[in-house]
Each structure stands twice: as structure tokens, then as C-alpha cells.
Design a protein that fits this description.
The protein is an all-alpha fold. 80% of the residues lie in helices and 0% in strands.
């Protein structure tokens, strides 16, 4: 009798909600493969593999001439500056929007939540394409695009963090007659600040990748160099730009990881 009780539960149970959820996901995945026109056999054919091999060989050796490496370094610095400034502006806007999104009542809270959803639902690439009309070509449009999209993401995350903060310290200050601003600065903010910083650093990691892609629409940085040289089929220069992207992303990821660990100690 005891051995029967120790047996693991059945793999699928009609009463298990998680089982039905997993089954539904599997059905959707299978339906996706059936509905999409995927030419997997042609992709794995000898002709396709030979074409891909020829394409990859064109990237080697990369162009490491001092003049071009200097241009790539300037583009990398521009991409890094775009991501850092865009993330900083987004963090400031996110804090300002998180307060009404978490503490306001009725229509004000719903309106701010709707605004945050609208900002983050539009990808950075679309924001950059629209802002190029008013801001012109260059990193300014890319920085604004990163700031607008990321402010919606961080605003929602910040609002959730503020709502989930322990209410005890804030209630203690309110009983002493402290106003809303002082309660936030002296009670809520110290509790959620490490979490807010962790969210911001994580989004900075994402934005360094997004900033590299934004150059596709003319927003400057490494992405603009990438599209220019790919358009001219200068694959040796394209390889150098790709290497710079990998190095930049690795450095930012490492720095962000180290800062997050330092904040959580």
C-alpha cells in the first residue's frame, strides 16, 4: 500500500489543468508547422548547403585595416551611446509613469496602463522609422526610439515593483503625517531600488542589440555600417562589423551582469 502511494502521478490526467495547457500548446505548435509553407527538404539539400558555404567563405578574412577598424570603432561607440542614453531616458520616464500606473485610481490608472501598453507594443524599429521623418537620419532618431519603447517596458515593470512593495514602512510614515511624495522617497523607493536598477540594466543589455539593428533604417551606429557594406556585397567589411557587434554585446552583457550581482549583495 505504501509503495503505491509513492508512485509518481500519471503523465496525463483529465483533472490536471497544466496537462491540458501543455496539450493545447503542443497542438498549436503542430498546427503552426502544418500551416506554414516550410521547405525544410530544400533548405537541407546539397545545393543549399553549398550556397551557404560559399556565402560564409566570403566573410573571411575580415577587413582589419586601421582606417576601417577606426570607422567601426566610431560606430560601436555611437551604438553604445545610443543604448545608454536611450535606457537612461526610459528609466526616468518609466519612474514618472509607474507612479500613477500603480497608485492612481480609476480612469487615471487605466489610462496610464493603456499608454504603457501602447509604448511597448510598437517595436523600436517602427518607432525609429517614424521618428526619422521628424528627427532626420542619424543616432538622434534611434535614441528617441529606444527611449520611447523602453519607457513602456520599464514603466510597467516599475509599476509592478512598486505595487508589490511591503506597505508597512509607507503606512508608518502616513500615520506621522507624511505626504505621498515623502512616502515614496523614504519608504517605497529604498525597498524597490535594487529591483528597479536590475530591470534597467537588463533592458540596457537588450537595447545594445536593438541599437545595432536600428541602423538598418538609418539611425546610425554599427547597424548603418552593416547595411551599407552588405548592400555593396563587401563581405569582408561586413564581417568586421559583425565581430564588433559581438564584442560590444559581450562587453555590455558582462558589465551589466557584474553590476546586477553587486546591487543584489
Amino acid at each position: 500500500m505504501d509503495s503505491k502511494r509513492r508512485l509518481p502521478p500519471p503523465l496525463f490526467s483529465a483533472r490536471c489543468r497544466a496537462c491540458w495547457l501543455v496539450a493545447g500548446v503542443v497542438v498549436l505548435v503542430v498546427a503552426s508547422f502544418l500551416s506554414l509553407d516550410l521547405h525544410l527538404a530544400a533548405f537541407a539539400s546539397g545545393e543549399s548547403l553549398a550556397s551557404m558555404g560559399h556565402f560564409v567563405r566570403e566573410f573571411f578574412p575580415p577587413d582589419l585595416s586601421p582606417a576601417f577598424v577606426g570607422r567601426v570603432a566610431a560606430g560601436a561607440w555611437e551604438t553604445l551611446a545610443m543604448s545608454a542614453l536611450g535606457t537612461l531616458l526610459a528609466a526616468l520616464l518609466g519612474v514618472l509613469m509607474a507612479l500613477p500606473a500603480s497608485h492612481a485610481r480609476g480612469g487615471a490608472r487605466a489610462g496610464m496602463r493603456l499608454l504603457l501598453n501602447a509604448l511597448r507594443s510598437v517595436p523600436e524599429l517602427v518607432w525609429a522609422a517614424m521618428l526619422l521623418i521628424s528627427a532626420g537620419l542619424g543616432p538622434f532618431a534611434g535614441t528617441l526610439a529606444l527611449a520611447i519603447h523602453t519607457s513602456g517596458v520599464l514603466g510597467r515593470l516599475f509599476a509592478e515593483a512598486v505595487e508589490n512593495a511591503p506597505p508597512g514602512p509607507g503606512a508608518a510614515l502616513r500615520t506621522q503625517g507624511a505626504g505621498t511624495v515623502r512616502v515614496f522617497l523614504y519608504a517605497t523607493l529604498p525597498q524597490v531600488l535594487p529591483q528597479l536598477m536590475s530591470y534597467t540594466l537588463y533592458r540596457w543589455e537588450n537595447n545594445i542589440r536593438a541599437a545595432a539593428v536600428l541602423g538598418v533604417v538609418g539611425a546610425g551606429g554599427l547597424g548603418q555600417l552593416l547595411m551599407f557594406h552588405m548592400g555593396l556585397f563587401q563581405m569582408d567589411k561586413t564581417a568586421t562589423v559583425l565581430i564588433a557587434m559581438l564584442v560590444l554585446v559581450a562587453l555590455v552583457d558582462g558589465a551589466s551582469f557584474a553590476l546586477r550581482r553587486w546591487l543584489t549583495r
